[in-house]
């Protein structure tokens, strides 16, 4: 089978597109014929060596996939040949990744794809969707009628946060780097979208929620905790999903006297049951059109190295040349 893989960690040029043996099935593993995969920033970090576990060699890159069940291992009980499925959390914790024509995935990490949801949508919503769901509901316990501020409402995770918060009945204020992105954020369900290059975020939040927002979702790699704390209401919840190497000052006093709480989210540490709970809501919302994939680029799997370069340009260099997820097709 064709696959995108690395023999050693390093730059995107280390990615090889070539032939590897089709996986053999054991236990509860399902053989998925891949129809679509998606690129995430974490994929580039792992490829570059920022992993905390030993990688298989060769290592197939990628976390997300959607496709059809081609075969099942002897212990599989949840799926049968021909079922459409999607999944994430591959290429992590020592598991092989998804950027291949065929993937062997333990059934505990797979979910049924609704008939009216495309493989591209399922793959593009996978990791970013479960990240948003875990942070919003398992960590921050967002409730209908509450308010939330999220940086970057059209980004990979940010767009999922906006849509899920809206679907859950919350009021949403977000930011965008242009009037076009702000308009798109409002289409996704934001009540207010602030052009951070031309408008005052703090003033907009004050007008939107005079007593502060109940939840702040931070997507920036270098958080300004003084500003974020000022946005929060009493007993507000702050969710972090980025900034692995960041060491910013933290306003302990203002934070604790408001009785606020801080929640980190790393989706690959969630259990199979926790992720399956996310998938139930996600499938429902995708099927209803309340959760839409933000796909900025579609490429053939053979161009995986170019896809990683494009992702890094936008994640690390903030080039602004990508609006949405990169989806690749075998």
Proportion of residues in extended strands: 25-35%
Overall 3D geometry? Answer: globular
CATH superfamily of the largest domain, called what?
Answer: Medium-chain alcohol dehydrogenases, catalytic domain
CATH topology of the largest domain: Quinone Oxidoreductase, Chain A, domain 1
The arrangement of helices and strands along the chain is EEEHEEEEEHEHEHEHEHEHEHEHE
Count of individual beta strands: 16
Number of helices: 9
* CATH architecture field of the largest domain: Alpha-Beta Complex
CATH class (first level) name of the largest domain = Alpha Beta
What is the number of domains?
2
The poorly predicted ranges are none
Q: By helix and strand content, what is the structural category?
A: alpha/beta
Query: Whole-Å distance between the termini?
Result: 10 Å
The average pLDDT is 95
Radius of gyration: 20 Å
Helix content: 25-40%
Describe the structure.
- By secondary structure, the chain is an alpha/beta fold.
- It has two domains: 2-113 and 294-329, Quinone Oxidoreductase, Chain A, domain 1; 128-267, Rossmann fold (3-Layer(aba) Sandwich).
- The chain is built from nine helices and 16 strands.
- It has helices at 41-47, 119-139, 156-167, 179-188, 201-208, 225-231, 252-257, 272-288, 304-315; strands at 2-6, 16-19, 29-39, 59-60, 65-72, 84-87, 102-106, 110-112, 147-150, 171-176, 192-195, 213-218, 232-240, 261-264, 295-300, 325-329.
- Strands 3, 5, 6, 7, 8, 15 and 16 form a seven-stranded mixed β-sheet that branches. A six-stranded parallel β-sheet has the order 11-10-9-12-13-14, with helices on both faces. Strands 2-1-4 form a three-stranded antiparallel β-sheet, with no helix packed on it.
- The longest helix has 21 residues, at 119-139.
- The chain starts with a strand and ends with a strand.
- The mean pLDDT is 95.
